[in-house]
Write a structure and sequence with these properties.
283 residues, mainly alpha
């Protein structure tokens, strides 16, 4: 099963031809349409300090913040596909006509447009100005971290995520959208610095919290591909394909646990997950 086939199976629109960049395109390279709401912490939620308890480079674990589970939001509502040619022209005109103000929110909006056009350093400059004007603006810091994940600058990525961690650790409640992006970016940073197991642990937990979070499946599968573990990678992708289609009452069938007593005499067990597989098995 090839990587390009993985893209088509998972149904992510507007992605490049390599799994490693798919996650960046989906979560960092697209124009954000975020409409965040503050949510109360759920039972036994994870804190950023716990995520970073192993000591990521350049980061100091914080304490005390309760983070909302990633399953609390619809992640697809946070990001748009890359702009089509007509949309790109409109964005270019908007950026050219942009009048800078002393508003961090305006600068973030400008940066998102610049990043959608592929102007990475321009977007970085706008976000740096935004955090200078309003150091407590966590959206600006998250967007800036996404820039460094996209450009694969791990040192700067961890530096910025450290700022986010410090801010979140002082909050009594945290936006689920912020935590979703924060944790995904942290996993990306771990992969960049050769700490694959830590990145996989984060992604696996994100999938457990929200089984529809497709970018986590893609990043997880890609990490196994890079280690030459193609069988594991294919298993991850198949799990992504099966999401939402399983009947919990029949979960035992996948492990060969039948719903009736074993009959006497010789028994041949054939397991098929689809009509096509059943036809092949019986042929």
């Amino acid at each position: 099963m090839t990587r390009d086939l993985f893209h088509r199976i998972l149904g992510i629109p507007g992605i490049p031809g390599i799994l490693a960049t798919t996650c960046v395109c989906v979560l960092q390279g697209c124009v954000s349409t975020r409409n965040e709401t503050e949510v109360s912490p759920g039972p036994a939620p994870e804190t950023p300090a716990a995520v970073m308890s192993n000591g990521a480079p350049g980061m100091t674990p914080g304490s005390g913040s309760q983070a909302a589970a990633s399953g609390s939001i619809d992640w697809q509502s946070l990001f748009k596909k890359p702009p089509l040619p007509g949309e790109r022209q409109e964005l270019e005109k908007r950026v050219e006509r942009w009048v800078d103000t002393n508003s961090a929110a305006e600068l973030i909006a400008k940066a998102r447009s610049q990043l959608a056009l592929g102007r990475i350093r321009d977007g970085e400059t706008s976000l740096r100005e935004a955090v200078r004007l309003q150091p407590s603006n966590i959206d600006a810091w998250i967007e800036l971290a996404a820039v460094y994940a996209r450009s694969r600058e791990s040192g700067k990525l961890f530096e910025v995520l450290g700022e986010v961690n410090d801010m979140v650790s002082g909050m009594s409640e945290t936006s689920a959208a912020i935590m979703l992006r924060y944790r995904f970016l942290l996993a990306q940073g771990y992969f960049m610095t050769g700490r694959a197991d830590e990145g996989r642990n984060i992604l696996s937990d994100m999938i457990a919290r929200n089984s529809d979070f497709t970018p986590a499946y893609i990043a997880l599968a890609d990490s196994f591909f890079r280690d030459g573990k193609d069988t594991v990678a294919e298993f991850v992708v198949k799990r992504a394909m099966d999401r939402g289609k399983e009947d919990p009452a029949r979960a035992g069938e996948r492990r060969g646990i039948a719903g009736r007593a074993r009959p006497s005499g010789p028994l041949i067990w054939m397991h098929a997950a689809s009509v096509g597989e059943a036809t092949s098995a019986l042929a």
